[in-house]
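**Protein of interest**
===
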Amino acid sequence: MTHFTQQTWKHWRLRQEDGGLAWLEIDCVDAAANTLSAEAMAEFAQVLDVLDARSPKALVIASGKAAGFIAGANIEEFTQLDSPSAARALVERGWSLFNRLAAVRYPTLALIRGHCLGGGLELALACRYRIAVDEPGTKLALPEVMLGIVPGWGGILRLPAMIGPAAALDMMLTGKGVDAKKAKRLGLVDDCVPLRVMESAARIMALSDAPPRKLPLQERVLRYAMNGPLRSKVADKARKQTAAKVSRDNYPAPFAIIDIWEKYEGNALAVPAGDPSSLEAIFASPTTKNLVRVFFLQERLKAFGKDSDFAPKHVHVVGAGVMGGDIAAVCALRGMRVTLQDQSVERIAPAIQRAAKLFERRYKGDARQVRFALDRLIPDPQGQGVPRADLIIEAIFENLEVKRSLFADLERRAKPEAVLATNTSSLRLEDIATVLQDPSRLVGIHFFNPVPMLPLVEVVQGEATDAAVLRRATGFVRAIDKLPLPVKSAPGFLVNAVLGPYMLEALRCVEEGRSPETVDAALVRFGMPIGPVELVDTVGLDIAVAAGKALAGEGATPPQRLLRLVEEGRLGRKSGEGYYRWVDGKAQKGEAGATGPELAERILAPLLAAAERCVRDGVVADADLADAGVIFGTGFAPHTGGPLHYSRSRGKTRIGGDPVVAEGAPQTVTQE
């Protein structure tokens, strides 16, 4: 065995210890995260050439960055592919290279710290061993489906063989990640170790000469059976479960993953060009382009707040209702000390109970971490936390005079440098700020319900809001791992301004005689996560009525049935009955009537018009941000690329003037 000390490439460093163990670190230059660009992959092939010529005793592949292992392929390069043949070449490069890694004669180990995603996990799967570092940032996932593509570098082949088809298909079809502990339980990694011992653990395992991990006996028997009819049964079940959530027309990638696993041994390159699961079909799909667009929209939102390091140590929340209580819980979950104020301890108690359930879910039953988080969330009926808080968030009911009185008191008691924020969804900041000695301190931080689940937060700039205050508010939103969307103070801001007319039009259709089920089914078929009538029931019919103009629009009135239901106390999910009857938190629905795409087109039209108006009026800076806000704030069908992108793709847009219709563009919603 020939020894070498160190060799370097642009993105890789290779060194060998005296005992013959080689360490290969990936550290992509001029990048915060490692990605497998064409250049990095070409260099990796050169590394393997060196190791083929001078085989080490074993090889450990690790990251030179503390931020993570490998974040996957380079998405920028993917957007530059200009033909199906180029897409096929990209897949073939990774497939062949990782097959080569899997076939080397010396033991290989992937030492995974931080994110290990997409192509990064496919590289790790091609190694003989895997060790994950047990820390919060470690996450292993194959999220390609969320970009409308498939794990083409060996993931569909190796993951089911390693952890069994059921768990593997679940990971690949949802794109969801697992932490280090769960990865160990699944058998995705051989060990899960603390940070302090990761290098010694990697060294011991790589040199152990232990055989690669095998599936348990039951799983091995199942795997053998998968070569027969059972494989088709598992695939058919997966298809049925997937079809219950999305359509193949809107989201072809998950169905392609199932096909490639079932029929082509996990090799996407083996699928013939005419097959709907082929690389050519996936590359040509508008969904793929639109989901990649959504990825970059999300990255743009994440970039807001990067110029601020404001992460308040102490947050004070006024209002322990569902919204305020959940805001407080999310802040405590992120390590902040939170005081939660309401009129009495009894009013605060339900919020603490909800927070405890959230902490138990997020910490996966780690009682110690749950206790620490609950210790950070302090009931404060007297508001004693106000003078100590770095950020104060008001989340009480929508009454202008009550909010004014509250903010006048908060300003007197708060630290001069504390940020004063309102979670108002419909009132103008300028109207609230009239009582403040310094109106520039007030900013809007508007969350959406349910706060722990929905990623978007509108950061609202009033006419007087100081730019530094706005930056700090945006920095806070990123510090709690939410997506900040800068908006100007205007009725409904962006998200509620587009949702109001949309929900109203849906209720008008019900008023005209269509069943709620028919209306909701039309929009779910389009790709919305929940129908608009069910959404009204979920929000609360009383809240829908109280929204007034934000819901009805100029010159319109709420439908009579809506008003009647509110008068009768049938307020939707929270009262057990609204447009639907609710049992155990689920709407009880009958059969939906038949309808064409025209119904969805009609109900969406006011939403599209409102989004255009928000851009035209400067509520958001541009159409891309409007699309990002509506997607991440309402769940608007991601496969469309957003409402305004959807309008443009149909050849219609009104931003800045009259409608423009492109020659040859379809004039109606295309919907299967």
In short: The first strand starts at residue 6 and ends at 8.
